[in-house]
Write a structure and sequence with these properties.
Layout: H1 2-68, E1 104-107, E2 127-130, E3 152-155, E4 161-163, E5 173-177, E6 215-216, E7 219-220, E8 225-226, E9 243-246, E10 257-261, H2 267-272
Parallel strand pairs: 3-9
Antiparallel strand pairs: 1-2, 2-5, 3-4, 5-10, 6-7, 7-8
């Protein structure tokens, strides 16, 4: 009887140990699954962010190459000019764009640049604003010594000026990745036919900057305005005065990403100018 009791105790103990091992194994698998899901999700976010960064960099490169060879275009005013934006999202630059000296905003004219459509991580096409001094039509007279000034100032999330502390360092163009709509934005076709990026109806919501670009800390990327102290940024686009744009990490009601062309980026372009 004593031997049998000991055997039963050992058997019960072994069963409890096996059950505990099974529970631990299940918990470990559950934790691993959660961790792997988190890693996969993080990897996906990183991959998407890389897609946006790659598209922005490609757009910047294409714009600089366009300026390098703009003197070879039919009817071109010379070297160093950047294309007018695209107003309908078909990828073709629409000329003329505004009055002389006024900066212009619209879709990036990827087809005019000899590129395929460039999308951000949320499959939105890129937007683009060009300085009134550097747009190809109507053109201004460009100089390399000193370089003709651009029009754009870039702020960070704290409204510290990161680009354009002096007028001589104003950016010449800015490219935006709009990403998903935020609160208050609607991107309908406005009765027009769908194009690659927008609508054939120029005034459709999908073509309107305010439905694509966001506002953060008093900087409105759609208008290029800064509702803080001092200038620049007092006048909304299109304007011949300086504009301000926000570069910050995605947060509540703000998810724009952007890249810009500085005077330093135009070094090879200036070198080709007479």
């Amino acid at each position: 009887m004593l031997i049998m009791a000991k055997f039963e105790m050992r058997s019960n103990s072994n069963q409890k140990g096996a059950a505990l091992l099974i529970i631990i194994t299940i918990l470990a698998l559950m934790i691993s699954s959660v961790l792997l899901f988190g890693l996969d999700k993080n990897s996906l976010n990183i991959a998407r962010d890389k897609k946006t960064s790659k598209a922005l960099a490609k757009a910047k490169e294409a714009l600089i190459n366009y300026a390098l060879l703009s003197d070879r275009l039919l009817g071109s005013p010379g070297i160093g000019y950047l294309p007018c934006p695209d107003r309908t999202g078909d990828g073709l630059s629409n000329e003329p764009c505004g009055l002389g000296g006024e900066s212009a905003e619209g879709w990036l004219p990827w087809q005019t640049l000899g590129e395929k459509p460039l999308y951000d991580k949320n499959k939105s096409c890129l937007r683009y604003v060009v300085s009134g001094n550097y747009k190809i039509n109507p053109p201004s007279v460009l100089s390399k010594l000193p370089p003709t000034q651009g029009h754009f100032v870039i702020h960070d999330a704290n409204n510290t000026v990161t680009v354009g502390a002096l007028p001589t360092s104003y950016a010449l163009a800015v490219v935006f990745a709009p990403h998903k709509p935020v609160a208050g934005q609607t991107r309908s076709m406005g009765g027009g036919a769908k194009t690659t990026c927008g609508s054939t109806t120029v005034g459709a919501q999908i073509n309107t900057a305010s439905n694509l670009l966001d506002t953060l800390n008093n900087v409105n990327n759609a208008a290029g305005t800064y509702a803080g102290p001092g200038v620049p940024g007092n006048n909304a686009l299109p304007t011949s005065t300086a504009s301000v744009f926000m570069q910050a990490n995605a947060q509540n009601n703000f998810n724009d990403a952007l890249i810009w062309i500085s005077p330093q980026d135009f070094a090879n372009v200036y070198a080709r100018m007479p």
